[in-house]
Amino acid sequence: MTTARPGRVRSEAARLAILEATTSELAERGYDKLSLDRIAAAAGVGKATIYRWYPNKGALVAEGMLSGHLLPRVAVPSSGDVRRDVTHWLIETSASLTEPTTGGLIRATIAATAEDADVARHYDDHVTSVARAELVARLESGRRDGQVDADAPLDALVEALVGVVLLNVLTRRDPDATALTATVTLLFDGAGSAGGRGGR
Amino acid sequence: MTTARPGRVRSEAARLAILEATTSELAERGYDKLSLDRIAAAAGVGKATIYRWYPNKGALVAEGMLSGHLLPRVAVPSSGDVRRDVTHWLIETSASLTEPTTGGLIRATIAATAEDADVARHYDDHVTSVARAELVARLESGRRDGQVDADAPLDALVEALVGVVLLNVLTRRDPDATALTATVTLLFDGAGSAGGRGGR
Amino acid sequence: MTTARPGRVRSEAARLAILEATTSELAERGYDKLSLDRIAAAAGVGKATIYRWYPNKGALVAEGMLSGHLLPRVAVPSSGDVRRDVTHWLIETSASLTEPTTGGLIRATIAATAEDADVARHYDDHVTSVARAELVARLESGRRDGQVDADAPLDALVEALVGVVLLNVLTRRDPDATALTATVTLLFDGAGSAGGRGGR
Amino acid sequence: MTTARPGRVRSEAARLAILEATTSELAERGYDKLSLDRIAAAAGVGKATIYRWYPNKGALVAEGMLSGHLLPRVAVPSSGDVRRDVTHWLIETSASLTEPTTGGLIRATIAATAEDADVARHYDDHVTSVARAELVARLESGRRDGQVDADAPLDALVEALVGVVLLNVLTRRDPDATALTATVTLLFDGAGSAGGRGGR
DNA sequence: CAGTAACCGAGACGGTACGTCGAGTCTTACA
DNA sequence: TGTAAGACTCGACGTACCGTCTCGGTTACTG
User: Fold this and answer.
1) What's this model's pTM, rounded to 2 decimal places?
2) Is A167 left (phi over 0), alpha (psi -120 to 50) or beta?
3) Among residues 12-71 of chain C, which lie with CB inside 8 Å of chain D?
């Protein structure tokens, strides 16, 4: 059943050492200063071992994301109040990404994503989509509670949230809680006074 | 005899050739594959000439942005209907950034921004802030027309717009008009059925 | 009291395949471009199998020589006329070593010999010494026939012959029969006009 | 008249440092263990600088020979007695090549010569041919003194001498003076008792 | 005739060196 | 004195081999 090719089996220790070294290099130097020579040395691994499994820098970084070595995850709470939960997620996520190492890591990830379409796809499929799905799920449960409009475009809402986070990361801003709360309020209440759903 | 100033006059032609070569290199190869050797050769310029004016790659790219060589600008129309104008801007901007060369350029810019804090600051100060200011101005005029709530957080609204654009660029999505319209609708009407800010 | 260790016996097929692959690699690429990876692949053999039997490249090449796979042998004829026989040997040997494959092989052998003292010893003990012994034997029989002086230094003569062959191989010259005949004539008649030995 | 291209001029210091480092590497490790990385490091030079001027290992070694950095030269004396002078040259040359460093160097040279036809040609044209010409000149002067037969093939004689030296170097033999003297005697008196050329 | 020891192929491993390319600096000749 | 040309050091790239080390499997002697 199992293929059972001949030859020595892949070293799991090497794989982990490579990923770990990649993460720390990435955090402290960024994506385009990433040196496979240094990674190999730090991981105590031959350069060929890296190239055997990852065709290029991008693939290596992509694998780092997948394995969760690269980015922290913030859970979406479920307190009963959707706005509070979303606000909480937004503040927590912002705080986590403002930390120096995490910030370096996420910026490296953005650079990798901008440079390499495969990485972008990989990242979107396996990382952000998870957070997005969680948020959407929470919003849907909010909708069942009557806290979210039936016809509100949840995908658009989630995209706006992620987009705001992204923008703050890129511009190195560390937004305070009020600003983030204002964003959530905007998304739930809207800015249009004439609007159908009603002015104050 | 007449002028008698020693030395050769600085070549404006060289400066422009450098910027042009940088732009095209950036569009077709991306930021981290940018090669100053290639730029110098393509511009018919000595490498030292580049380094005389720009201390490093990042500064060169930053200058490229400033000079408008790097990114197209989309004007915010002023038709009388704020939602329509914002929607128009969003669709136009998305379309412009979906074009292959512009997309490559903007992604290169994002990578540069992610890698280099100076570039990020430069970009934020001189490029996005312009677009942001324009959007804010339009929204303020809309507020005077009663189309925008008095207490709506305009900055947050603009950030959400820019964030959505950013996310689409990074994920290589080409959103259709309906999706973008839904985003604008969300931002103006909100998703919260109970209406935190005011009852229905 | 048979020694007869248990375990699988050495695969003769593998041994031959290795030697053959080595020979052809050596002929077409030379000694320092010799690759054990390539040899193993060409021979359909695991690299470890080569290393099990030969501690290093040199030993493998040395074995190749021994087994006669590596160099052709030219017999010394015995026609009754020593000069003619030696000349014949010299011409035949030169011709054989001028052929492209044999030439590549012998030059690879020379390189191996120059690089590795063990290979040199091996080669001298098992290969050239055979040719030398044959030549010496022929000269001794010539001495018995009165065609060679009783006190002529046969070893020196043979060394001069081999040295000339070697030099021609290294310099990629393809000497014609006249030049080689002149060498033999010189060795038998000498260049000294006074005839030193006569007046001894 | 001089071409006077623009651009920085080639650094003579770098050239010499490279050649010197090459020589010492060659002497202590041999030709096929020669590492350009090591040479560059030892010479305090970028690897690219080596490759800018020498397309491959062989060319570098060839240049090393030319510049006299690589091999000692033994002059042919002129005492009036040709045999004595030739014998002296042979003994001196043998002694010099038996010394460890020189021996390593000459063997590396032989390996380079065996591996690379260009090096061989280079070497033959610029190095051995000098020694050969000197020997031939001495023999011709001996011929004018009546010490060498008018019709003796001087080229063949010189080749035999060089060939014998070569063989000794390759086999790592350190021949004593008597053996070398016997060789010279053979070359001048011949081994053929009947005396083909007749003139005893 | 079952164990078991030494073999076999395959191929991954940590390394070293390769030859190329790019960054950023420096040195020419010329304008 | 600014500029094009181009050599310089440094360091990373991705590839190729080295010699070693598992792997799963195959003989063929031994108990």
Assistant:
1) 0.87
2) alpha
3) 30-33
